Amino acid sequence: MKLYRYLTGPDDSEFCARVTKALNLGWELYGSPTMTFNGERVIVGQVICKEVDEDYQEDTDISAVLKKAANT
Fold first, then answer.
1. Can you give the pTM of this predicted structure?
2. How many other β-carbons are positioned within 10 Å of the β-carbon of residue 50?
C-alpha cells in the first residue's frame, strides 16, 4: 500500500528538519512544495509518500498505519 502525508508548517528550519527526517525514514517527495502567506509568515507544505508491506482494505486504520510508518 502506498501511504500519503501532507506536511505543513512555517517556512523555517524545523519544517526542513521534519521533511529531512521523513526522507531518511524512507518517505519520498511527491509533487512540488506549496507556499502561502497567512498575513504573518510564509506557510509551506510538501506531500510525501511511502510504500509499505500492508494491503489496503476498506476498514484499514490509515491513522495507525501512518503512525507506525512515521517511525520506521
1. 0.83
2. 20
| pLDDT tens, position by position, 17-69 | 999 999 999 999 999 999 999 999 999 999 999 999 988 888 989 888 888 88
Please report, in angstroms and rounded to a whole number, the separation of the first and last CA atoms in the chain.
15
Q: What is the pLDDT of residue 43?
A: 98
Query: How many helices and strands, by DSSP H and E, does the chain display?
Result: 2, 3
- Chain mean position to CA 19: 7
Indicate the domain borders of the chain. Answer: 2-70
| Closest by Cα among 18, 23, 63, 66 to 44 | 18
45 forms bridges with which residues in the sheet?
Answer: 8, 34
Question: Which residue in this structure is represented by grid cell 517527495?
Answer: 29
Please provide residue 25's backbone torsions phi and psi, each rounded to the nearest 5 degrees. Answer: -100, 10
Q: Is 17 helix (H, G, I), strand (E, B) or coil?
A: helix
